Amino acid sequence: MDIQKELLLWVGAALVCAMVVSFIMCPLVKSFAYKIGAIDVPKDSRRMHKKPVPRLGGLAIFLGFMVSILLFVHIDHQMKGILLGAVIIVVLGVVDDMTPLRAKFKFLVQICAALVAVYHGVVIEILTNPNVFSDAPYWSLGWMKYPVTVLW
Fold it and tell me: Which residues are CB-neighbours of 30 under 8 A, at least 6 positions away?
């Protein structure tokens, strides 16, 4: 089997795994949302639904993503940083779904999650130069790679 077919099968298996785990986790996460009170109650005209709806749907998708990543991807130092940052963001989302958090606090936690990834070596070092008339096709960010990565 050539490398392209093998890669396609590997990626397909990872996608199917993520989908199956997410599908299985949806009812479990739904009952968990009701249990912890992570429910969106329609109380104003901004809400589209008429009955209370459980939040946390992203948690089931995240669990499918994580299982698939852990089974099909080599976890190096940078990937650890990305996954740890993702876990921080998901925990923040779950807590926010249970008890609404202030925007400044959420932003601070998001910055911390990005810093975890940066600490593990995940940085944006170059950007494509948008000036098509320039001789330099890329911008090297130098020390700016850290704030650009965190804010990206």
Answer: 54, 56
What residue segments make up the domains of the chain, in order of their start? 1-73
10/6 Cα distance (integer angstroms): 6
Number of C-alpha atoms within 13 angstroms, CB side, residue 118?
A: 18
Residues 26 and 91: their CA atoms lie apart, in Å, by 17
For every residue of 8-23, DSSP letters joined together read HHHHHHHHHHHHHHHH
Phi and psi angles of residue 75, each rounded to the nearest 5 degrees, phi first? -95, 100
Q: How far is CA 120 from CA 25, 72, 146, in A?
A: 30, 20, 12
**Are residues 84 and 37 in contact, defined by beta-carbon separation less than 8 angstroms?**
no
Return d(Cα 136, Cα 13) in angstroms, integer: 40
pLDDT tens digits, 13-33: 999 999 999 999 999 999 999
State pTM to two decimals. Answer: 0.84
Neighbours of 137 (CB within 10 A): 10
Residues 85 and 88: their CA atoms lie apart, in Å, by 5
